Amino acid sequence: MQDYPIGTPGTPWSEAEKKQWLNAQTVKRSYKEEVIDRLPALPDNYEISQYGALPYDESRYPLFVIKPKSFVTSLPTVLVTGGVHGYETSGVQGALKFVSQHLAAWQHKCNFVVAPCVSPWGYETINRWDPLAIDPNRSFRENSPAPESAMLKAMVDAIEEPIHMHIDLHETTDTDNSEFRPALGARDGITQDVWDIPDGFYLVADSGKVELDFQKAIIEKVRAVTHIAPADENDKIIGADVLSDGVISYDKKSLFLCGGLTDAPYVTTTEVYPDSPSASDEICNDAQVAAIIGGLEYILA
């Protein structure tokens, strides 16, 4: 793992290093143009609601959710989250694509709650962290220090219907090794494990409720769109044991991951690989959509 240009190796960052890191970040794309302006027209029973705004710039970073105007209690409720890590583009655009192209066809089978871009500052700066140098996807807990996580948690906790399926849309990119893991090691003053970035799509199940047939159904649906990541020489993906083709698991609640946000019996985190020579933006977005549909087909079968 390469050295990081901020901080002293072996010494966790103080507020001064965090500020130095923040000052080095720049806006590279527009949340308004690429997300807000692309919020689609919805079926009659659905609405776009604002559930918060990031305190860094409330007018620039409103937070939106697409949800039913009234939930049908006889239908399962499905939560889709994207952009928890703002730099993982297809999580955001895949969620929007599902809503714009597929929500109408599925609206009478499930109640859908879709938060397409949880971390808009991270989206604009193409960042894993928020401006406080906090990873939102390790921060879904009570009294969370990450406003992105706290506001999403409050919105989801307020849903009266039980969540039946939660799919959290992510990417694993080459910059995980070139930028984000070195930054994490520098911030915390520790040495980070090194692993190869998987070439292909994979899923992260919740180790407490893997529901392997559910994971396999999603993998098979995505396989028609893009290739599935192979295990490495140690039969692992990103350091975790492979449970099935393209499936690993984490203890999501203990790690305060977005996938542990609810008590849904069916939970998975997608991981698309946008840096593959055979990938494109469209393929990555379509893989996210296929993952959602694969999960829906399974839980409704």
From TrEMBL:
GO terms for biological process: proteolysis. InterPro entries: AstE_AspA_cat, Peptidase_M14. Residues 27-301 form the Peptidase M14 domain. Keywords: Hydrolase, Metal-binding, Zinc. One of its GO terms (molecular function) is zinc ion binding. It holds the Pfam family AstE_AspA_cat. Its cofactor is Zn(2+). Gene3D superfamilies: Zn peptidases (3.40.630.10). PROSITE patterns: PEPTIDASE_M14. CDD domains: M14_REP34-like. Belongs to the peptidase M14 family. This is Peptidase. It comes from Alteromonas confluentis. The lineage of its organism: Bacteria, Pseudomonadati, Pseudomonadota, Gammaproteobacteria, Alteromonadales.
